[in-house]
Amino acid sequence: MTTTGTTRTPERPIDDDRLHALLGRFVGDLGATAGAAGLVIGHRLGLFRGLAEGPATPEELAARTGTDPRYVAEWARAQAAGGYVTAEDGRYSLDPEQRFALTDPDGPLYLPGAFVLALGALRAEPRITEAFRTGRGMGWHEHDDDVFAGCEAFFRPGYLAHLVTNWIPALDGVAGTLERGGTVADVGCGYGASTVLMARAFPNATVTGSDYHGGSIDAALQRAAAAGVAENTRFEVAGAHDFSGSSYDLVTFFDCLHDMGDPLAAARHVRASLAPDGAWMIVEPIAADDPAGNMNPVGRLYYGFSTLLCVPNAISQPGGWALGAQAGEAAVADIADRAGFTRFRRAAETPFNAVYEARP
């Protein structure tokens, strides 16, 4: 007698140690999921900044921040249990590392802003669940507003820490060109954090930010004006394949190439828009070429966001590509090569980003 179908491999008995390890990860992950809201609440209400003024009881912190003491007490206990606040004898405080990471939205590290992005992205879960069934996409512009604000808050500290001091100087001759003048196209600029940083660092250069999301461009205009760089910046609502201008000395793509439905068309447009000796700087999430090399906490972070944001956005656009946030260097290099760039290298990197330089 013959049978059809696959033969199941006999299951091994449950290993208690492995099960307990899985339960430990579950408790940590569920606590982090519930705790994300507390980080955002602390961000929105200034609770972390209130603690930066000095140790406080819940009643004292509530008085400093104009909030309710009973809510503050539960919030402080949760933050202390999670390691974001220090608790001692009924009072709560921030140690130097917590103060550095939790209280300055304009500093080189600001953790609460990343949770704004996470909670904003999670609001799309019903639509993404349905997209798994249908194969349809969900455009960036269709997400909750916290995705746009949170994306800036998530990436801006890295740009503050590295863009002007490390990444641009790592490009051959670009910093000198921009110091003398020059032109930059900052594609997919979002709220304009990178645009403003470059315009402030290189006041003789002209920096043009573009994004297909009109609401982000409105915010970018306001940010540039507030930063005092309105005179050497301009902004436009445009996609990566049709932003305006030509003979740019530098074109920048910050954490956006992998989001595009047709990154090859975008790369070809960059190639046509560059000066003969211009440079294309592509900043992408750090990733190995083989998914097996991304099985780590950073890879988990990016795969999670990519499932909710990057892949659905790419699928929503014409082109048929969906690189995802862990595409890796080989995929980016292949796009640059197919678009007509003759030189490509990794110019710099951080624990979260790889910085590539492509030349005509």
UniProtKB/TrEMBL annotation:
One GO term of the biological process aspect: methylation
The S-adenosylmethionine-dependent methyltransferase Rv2258c-like winged HTH domain, residue ranges: 39-103
Gene Ontology molecular function, alphabetical: methyltransferase activity
Domain named Methyltransferase type: residues: 186-278
Matches recorded under InterPro entries: Methyltransf_12, SAM-binding_MTase, SAM-dependent_MTases_sf, WH-like_DNA-bd_sf, WH_DNA-bd_sf, WHD_Rv2258c
EC number of the protein: 2.1.-.-
Record keywords, A-Z: Methyltransferase, Transferase
Stated name of the protein: Class I SAM-dependent methyltransferase
